[in-house]
Structures are given as C-alpha cells and as structure tokens.
Amino acid sequence: MRVFGHVCVNEFSNSFVIAPDGPGEAIIVDPGTMDVDLLRIIEGNELRVRYVLITRAVPAHTDGLKTLLRVYDAEVLAPTEIEDISVSGCLDESCSMELSGFVTHVIHLPGTWIEGVFYQVGSALFAGDFLSAGRLGDVPQGYVRTRLRNSLLELLNNLSPDLYLFPGYGPPTTVETELKTNRELLEEPREPEPQPRLVDDREWEL
Amino acid sequence: MRAREPCSHDNCGNAAVTGASECADHLPRRYPQQLASLIAETHELLWSSFERVSLSGLSFAGLALYGVTFREARLEECDFSDSVLSYCFFDSATLRSCSFARIHVRSCSFGAAELIDTNFSEGNVIQTSFNGALLQSGGIEMCDLLHTRFLSARLNETRVEDCNLKACDFSRSTRTAVSFRYSNVEDATGLDTDPPTFTTRE
Description:
The complex is a heterodimer.
Chain A: E1 2-8, E2 13-19, E3 24-29, H1 36-44, E4 47-53, H2 59-62, H3 65-71, E5 75-78, E6 89-90, E7 95-99, E8 102-108, E9 117-121, E10 124-128, E11 131-132, E12 135-136, H4 143-157, E13 164-167, E14 173-174, H5 175-181, H6 183-186, H7 201-204
Parallel strand pairs in A: 3-4, 4-5, 5-6, 10-13
Antiparallel strand pairs in A: 1-2, 2-3, 7-8, 8-9, 9-10, 11-12, 13-14
Chain B: H1 33-41, E1 44-46, E2 54-56, E3 64-66, E4 74-76, E5 84-86, E6 94-96, E7 99-101, E8 104-106, E9 114-116, E10 119-126, E11 134-136, E12 139-144, E13 154-156, E14 159-161, E15 174-176
Parallel strand pairs in B: 1-3, 2-4, 3-5, 4-6, 5-8, 6-9, 7-10, 8-10, 9-11, 10-12, 11-13, 12-14, 13-15
C-alpha cells in the first residue's frame, strides 16, 4: 500500500490518495480541492479513483468532490450528508469494510462535537479534524474539549503505536509520537464538567 | 502502549527500543556497504523502511525520498544534501552530525527525535513536525519553515537564522541560547518577543 499526500492550497488542508503498489484502484481521502497536482498523482501512477472517503463533511474536505466525480466514477462515503453530492454510504457507526482490496475500519468518536470519523487503512490512520500533530481538534474549551481529549486518549491507547497518523491539517505524525509529545492530549485527564443546565422558561416567571 | 524491556547489553541502564532487545546506543549496524552502493545507484527511495537500525556515514544526497521511515533509527554523519523529502518519518530517531543542505522537506515528521549537531540550510522545511524534539548545537539557516511545528520541543544552543517563520508554532517549547537573527519572529506563534515600544511626541 502507498499513501500520497497533497496539500490544498486554499485552506491548507490535507488530501490523501491510498494506492496499491502498482497501477489499480485508488481511494481518495478528503479531496479539499481537485487540482493539477492531485490529478498528476492519480494519473502519473496509473490509478483509477474508485472510492472517496470523507472524514468530516466540511468545505475544506469536500470542495474538490464535484470536479473529482465528473472525472472519475467513484462512490462517496461520509459520516453525514453532503450538499449537492450523492453519498453512497452514510457511516453513522464504527464498522469495517473492504474497499478496492484494502480493509478499511471506520472509527466513530461519538459525543465529541466534531461530526466526523477516523479511517484506518492498513498502517495508516486518517484523523481528519479530530487531531493534528501536537494539537487537538479545534473545539471550544471546557466540557467539549475535555470529552474529546478523554475519547482520543482512550482510542489511541487501544491502537498500535506504530500506526502512521495523517491529519486533516498540518504535518503527519505517528500514534506513538502523539502519546509521547502531544501536551494537549496528555494534560491530566479529568471528568468532563457537567453541561450547563438549560433554564426552563417557567423559572423566569417570578 | 507496548512495554519496553531493558537493553540486553551488560551494565546498560537504558530501555530497549520498541520491538528490539537493544537500546538506541546498542542497535546493530545493519545495511552495510551493499546499501551504500545501492543508494548511490538510485535516484529515489520510495516507501522504504530503515526502522530501528544504526546508519553511519551514509549518503542520501541528491535523492527523492518519499514515504521513507527512519523511526527509532540512529543516523550518524549521514548526508541528505540536495534531496527532496516528503512524508518521511524520523520519529524518535537520533540524528548526530547529519547534513540537510539545499533540501526540500515537506510534510515530514521529526517527532520526539534528537537532532544533535545537525544542520538544515538553504532550503524549505515546510509543514514539518519537530514536536517534542531536541535540537542541540545545530542550526536551521536560510530556510522557509512555513507551517512547521516545534510544539514542546527543546532547542539548545541552536541557530534559527535568516528563516521564514510564518505560521510556525513554538508553543510550549523551551529555548536556551537560541539565535533567531534575521528571522521574522513576529510571524511565529509561541515565541516570546519584547512588547512593542511606542514613542510619543511631546
């Protein structure tokens, strides 16, 4: 298995092409743009895009989809619906499937504010917006952040430390390096603070 | 996390490298002369692995390295000059007296690596991670470091001179005797800079 990386210049988000060792069917993760560089990776290696995996349905990861689907007859798999795009499979829970000969694990982290998924293909983990090298995903401070950190810590501790981690933004890293050096992740894990109670309308009536 | 055993060498108090029975100081020297001649004949190294080995005096000069892993390796006096490195992983490796002159490094990881007396010069080191790394007695000079991260890194007696630090992140890093001469420090995150001084006219 080979993984080609591509940085989308408009948002500085990362796209990845998962390819076999020779020509054949490929999978694209988060096509934030469809430009000449990405086309060169695909065509230069004699690949045919068969599947598109979206870690999170936001423009930074999906803006290249329309152009890509005009060129290649590919199936789109995403955690939620995408505007104006026909999604073949909505991945609303963790599961495993075989795509173009690659065993792909879909990993959900429910309740973490980010409506997205991880994909593990071989020794590569595509983390989308959940995690970046040395940083947690961009979520508000407080309850949400604590919950995301606790969930990520539990997930990473259960994965092989040798896994390569390809985030939606920033440089690549490994699971072991994140568990060693990501200070945002390694801050003392604590219980999430209780969510603020919504005030009932009747309580305002004195 | 996988538990680490103590190094099998006598009187060695270090922990063994993951998956090996030796620590980084006692890793076997694999890839002998044949490897050097093999690399000399090639123009690119793709998806190769040099994990947990000790390489000394090897020249990777003028090569395109894509998806090459040097995780937990020990590289001594290796030359990467005039090379292009993309998606290369040097995580937890030890690089001593290595040279990265006129290189183009993009989307690589030096996470938790030790770079001792190792120099990067006259090139690009873009969107690369030095998170948790130790940079000791070396330097990065005349390089574009766009979007490169030094989170929780330790920089000792290091020169980061005449570099473009736009969108660089040095948050939680510790820096001792580091020179940022001629670099645009104000465009980086996590560097303590003197507060701006204002003069008012009477």
